[in-house]
Design goal:
Jelly Rolls, mainly beta, about 200 residues
């Protein structure tokens, strides 16, 4: 049983300092099947292997109200067709819970949407904080061609994760490489539409 206890964490250190964390989760590209719009590009990428798309390093705490869960998210560089490597993305099972991300290194963006149809995309740069409001699904996207995107996250321990809604529908917006520029487009699984440069 995990006991409530104080702790400190050196988040300025390299990701190799994984000994500070209690749990390491690796998500390979295969876990994102159905999330990329170009199915042929996904099949071609998978034919070359099943690379690690991202990792999550976590500090384990009691999953109860009053506690906070925290850790590092590390999204590796790569693309499937024009789409960048990204996390699966999720709502919190307890919708009325928020999350904070602090970018440590790399560059990318946080794609967000709520169930009312609102959406937002915020840029990640080192030293920048992104606040995910209650009720908003969120997904990290690494737009760097060479560097991993590393963020420190904190959220209420009782929040839980709802991956199924995103696995079913995807996000309304995708971030793609448009001649070297990260660009927001409508997800064709939702509708076609205008482009906006990040």
């Amino acid at each position: 049983m995990i006991q409530p206890r104080p702790f400190s964490l050196d988040i300025g250190s390299a990701p190799e300092s994984a000994a500070q964390f209690d749990h390491r989760l690796e998500r390979r590209l295969s876990s994102l099947r159905g999330q990329f719009s170009d199915a042929q590009a996904f099949a071609e990428k998978m034919a070359q292997g099943d690379p690690v798309a991202y990792e999550v390093l976590e500090i384990l705490r009691p999953e109860e109200q009053g506690e906070l869960l925290s850790g590092l998210s590390i999204v590796h560089p790569g693309k499937v067709g024009r789409e960048y490597f990204m996390t699966k993305g999720h709502f919190h099972s307890v919708r009325a819970t928020a999350e904070i991300y602090y970018c440590l290194r790399g560059q990318g963006c946080m794609v967000m949407e709520n169930e009312s149809g609102d959406w937002d995309v915020q840029q990640f740069l080192p030293g920048r904080v992104v606040y995910v409001a209650p009720g908003w699904a969120h997904r990290s996207v690494n737009t760097s061609p060479t560097e991993s995107l590393m963020t420190f996250f904190v959220y209420p321990a009782h929040a839980g994760h709802d991956y199924a809604t995103i696995e079913r529908n995807g996000f309304r917006k995708l971030v793609v490489d448009d001649n070297g520029s990260p660009t927001i487009i409508d997800n064709p699984r939702w509708s076609a539409g205008a482009r906006t440069h990040v």
